[in-house]
Queue: 4 jobs
Job 1
Amino acid sequence: MPRSLEPLDLTIQIPYHFRCPISLELMRDPVTVGTGQTYDRSSIESWVATGNTTCPVTRALLTDFTLIPNHTLRRLIQDWCVANSAFGVERIPTPKQPAEPSLVRSLLSQAASESNPTHSRLSALRRLRGLARDSDKNRSLISSHNVREILVNLVFSSSQSLELSHESLAILVMFPLTEFDCVAIASDPERISCLANLLFHSSIEVRVNSAALIENVVAGTRSSDLRLQISNREIIFEGVIDILKNPLSSPRALKIGIKGLFALCLGKQTRHKAVSAGAAETLIDRLADLDKCDAERALATIELLCRIQVGCAAFAAHALTVPLLVKTILKISDRATEYAAGALLALCSASEQSQKEAVCAGILTQLLLLVQSDCTDRAKRKAQMLLKLLRDSWPEDSVGNSDDFVCSEVVPF
């Protein structure tokens, strides 16, 4: 039942046969099972997924789990929605039907065959991409057909058109990689060089997809040596940060840029490369444009970079760093507060100027509120350490004695 109908239950009656027998809500994608009963697709799929093998209404055993779309009933429901639009009922959209396994196999075969003309292979890939976008169920089906190995080979093949490679890349980043896939990419210097070069492609979509694949590989590789082979390339930091700098970057581009930068900065040995590429200024300038989850990652990255001397210096040199971090405390989330406090602790420990800026920005009030809040223990410990560090900057009777605590590590996302 659409939310818009909830307050209208007393004035409008949904026909009984338009309701799903399982959920009792208006059906959006009615399908018929072998017993002849019709249910909403999501409801009957959930019923079967939990181990039930009978028809919910008749209790008869379902020997065939094929779901047949009931187009006639769906059109009747749509007509009813239109007829009752004056009551706030919205017309249900025509659902896209799930992909057939035979179709997926055929499309993958067409795309992988080097004997097929390029335009035919591109057409197959674009159709696969459309199916993958349609639903999680389609992505699960496509994923079960060895799609990763096929796409990885297409992305990095030197004997095909660049357009075919770029289209394959766009599909590949829609699927989680296995560790085997990640190792196969990370252990090949030519493949890493290819991805690094794509970060500077004229198409922003290609650049973002390359950054997404790099992040997937770094996050999915257990070997620290292989991760280092990727993050040790300054050009990769420059490419990822350039995506964040781009004023035309979409929310997806910003999300992937932040995820990529965070993953690359987890390795301590190469954090200085992020700083050299302009990470400090970019993170501070972009922080206000990010949603909650991305802001948490950005603040976690800031804390990581503040743990090295050159990173601390770079953030301290930005006039907005300290005021913005102080303002962030208790504003976004517990995690964000913890990372902001950790970054401030590093900055104030390294610079008296940062201490003065923090006091001017009102950090005392923020820290006192933080210590009394329901925030994480790690955040409170960092706040206690900051209070102790800054106690000479305000009257002695304004802050009680605090014990010394060790700053904990950033929790990976």
Job 2
Amino acid sequence: MEKKNINSVEEVKNKQVILRDYVTGHPKESDFYISTSTIKLQIPPGSNAVLVKTLFFSVDPVMQFHMRKVQHQHLDGYQYYTPGSPINGFGVAKVVDSGDPNFGVGDLVWGTIGWEEYSLIQQPQQLFKIQHTDVPLSFYTGILGMAGITAYSAVYEVSIPKKGDRIFVTAASGAVGQLIGQYCKLMGCYVVGSACSQEKVDLLKNKLGFDDAFNYKQEPDFHAALKRYFPEGIDICYEQVGGKMLDAVLGIMKVHGCITSCGMISQYNIAEPETLKNVMQIVVRRLTVKGFTHRDHHHLYPKLLDTVLPYIRGEKVVYVEDIVEGLENGPSAIVGLFSGRNFGKQVLVVSHE
């Protein structure tokens, strides 16, 4: 690589989203602030780091765990944020400079990057090089990114449905749920989803191809609602909500059914987790309950691309995104996730370049 005169390297402003302090309960916009520093558009001499310009960020519920102060951070694998420093998350970026032979200037990548306009990646092995640019680059924050790995592994690896299975998907209009439902439909299943508004219910039924859906906020009795849609019981529940919804699901499952969970968003910001009354149904109905995260399934990414790219190109799968423009609107986008404000996968656009 040609040596550069470090004194002639361009220095630019670098807008960042900073965590003000550790967060308890629901995150608020005031928990963050926007700061502008400067950065040189060159990696440090001798470094194997990669310097990237951010294009898109994925806004994910899991980010709130990174905002908390915990004693044993090494046990759960999360990359916790440091107050006074930029937060980080999954994003799509363009390589500006590189000391890693696997990445060249101009390459497009996705992976964990700082919430800033330019980010120095010290561990570039965590980045994925984007080889397919005939689909929207923003898809690498979702259907072809972390959410995509979660949904793909849920259906094709963790709990594989059979044709004719009765499937229930909670948080069905979100980044993961919308994909799980469509993949199950492609496998010949009957699929019902729950969501938090009539607009999202209409999306599931009219655009995403779910057999049915309901607004859980309008259902005073979750058990009765599920019995209405699953009179013979549920074969597989892909669960992301927890609490009262999970308790109702336990009482509707078929014998030898499976509950597969990658999140429980209703429990994230309450002082005491809700008590489940139907836990004995796990025994009575001989249920399998599986918890998982995307972190155990990144090895499936080549298979995901082989399967999902043809779905996208053939318009067999629809992916709905909720686009927010501007890094300064990042805190609002994060907070909106926990009130259901987003409509589809929440994406933050930093640059269109």
Job 3
Amino acid sequence: MAPIPITIITGFLGSGKTTLLLNLLPQLRAANPTYKLALLKNEFGDVAIDSQLATSSAISGVQELLNGCICCNLVGQLSEALAELQKSVTPDRIVVETSGSAFPATLAMEVNRLARETGNYTLDGVVSVIDVENWKGYEDTSYTARVQVKYTDLIVFNKWESCDERRFDEVLDRVGDLEVDIAWVKSDKGRVPVDVIFGVDGGLARTLTEEATARNEHGHDHSHDHQTEVEVLSVTLKGKEGSAVSSVKLMALLNAAPKDEVYRIKSVLTASSTVRSSGEDESLPTPPHPSQRYILNWAFGRWTFTPLADETAEHNSSDHAPLRMTLILARYESTKWTKKLESGSFLELDGEDKGELIVTKIS
């Protein structure tokens, strides 16, 4: 059989990697209804969230690597995960979606190594997604954000629609400061033509070898900056069967979280009443609402609630608890946010039983 093409999608926290991926599916199915796309997803924290969203969106197969980084302490699991997807799905293509902190060059080298040793894969290219609205801010402080852009075959500029041309030009200038000549494209609200993302024939990605580790882009900087740029809290809210999270308190958290302290909030939860994604008209009447299971995805002050379909098998990492949440924070913010959450101001069950809240720092 021909080697399975692998596309790596990377980008800093909240840039829109999963949205980009999910917008490729309708295009693929329109061209070939039997096309099978598999996903290997690396997530911060100890709960699978984006991968459940992908599973509910007709991706043929999903493997997830949790609570670590696919380019360093989880890299040894890459071979096994790819092999499992190949065996269980026989996909036409595999997308490896990294966590927001991954170094794409290190991951590309590992895929190249597996391709040489097994003959089962070929690295098609590395795609980096940039959030135009916020990249100028976090690029200043994040070594990882700069490396993700420097070692890539294609840049997708996302979330540019709400910015003026000056902001976009500033981001282009900052990318230019990295002294790399990389093709780029603007997304249309997270959508890019599939033939632009797949088939980039990434020359840079495939030529990366272990020799690159001799350069200072990796090595010490990787261990020092890469693992300490963010802090991660794992949150569990326990309760009796049928318990639901107070939607009023939860919405207060989403509105109050400052984006210079909180980079991402991801959760699987049961809401007590109707919840609204950011930007929805709050003056509209709230319809009757049975307790509903949702996937919450919050990034830089904007969020979406996606109902978890009844037929979707929930990942055992969330285990039907009223709430399982991952908060990805800026450095030195975990202690403050642990106290805020434990105060009961934002997360509790609806009704007399407020539930048992457990907040754990995991990185």
Job 4
Amino acid sequence: MEKEVMSSLKMAGNILCSASSFIRKCIFGVLRVGPIPNHIAFIMDGNRRYAKKQKLSHDGAAGGGGRYDAGFWALMVMLLYCQELGVKYITAYAFSIDNFKRKPEEVESLMASMLEKFHLLDILVKRLAVRVHFVGNLELLSNELRASAMELTEATAAYSKSVLTICIAYTSRDEILHAVRESCEQKRIDLEFDNDDDNEIKLMKVEKNMYMAVAPDPDIIIRTGGENRLSNFLLWQSCWSHLHSMWVLWPEIGVWNLVFAILNFQRNKTYHLEMRKKEKEL
């Protein structure tokens, strides 16, 4: 176990060192001539197909690392690239509520893997001054996993260079239902104590009670794995987001995939700005 942790830490160090790549800095310098998105969200699809392709086990026992290990490091690489580019907010769709319907051993394996990665995530985000949020119906998680998530959130609360939001036990429908319930309860309390004489629930109140109120609406939603669906992810927040689908599997995502997604966003930036401006005017 100790050898595995040291190996992972060494990998983390290598990733941190590679962030200063001269070639990548030149590419990113050219990209920064155009508008850079403030918030990029990732639907990390293709992990199971990657595991099958690489003949990896669910728990990472085969070949020195499973699909969850590869997916974790892919997220860390994207976090580094986004920070280097100047993208402030990064959101990752890590685990859907619907995924609890998978085989119990698979769900248990993923939860155990997440718990193991929290220590490495803690080291990396502190080195990079990244604030971490975990959003979703966290009551569905085990006590240990939920406590670790809250601990990491509190430990990084003072950081502001980047904000990483990890959606776990999340679906957009659940988020909207949660926000409406919270808004209705708050309105009931206000009316009961005569703090409000208006029976109407404002849009701003509903949005304030969204899990994703911790970040602005995403400029780009990137989905790997070749699918063109949002899969119950950020349905409320993606109204004017640029959607970018790519065939590459999530663990195989690289710098050029991110570059092409941002170039595509820059090409359509004027349209998205106009739509958001019209929405605000309304």
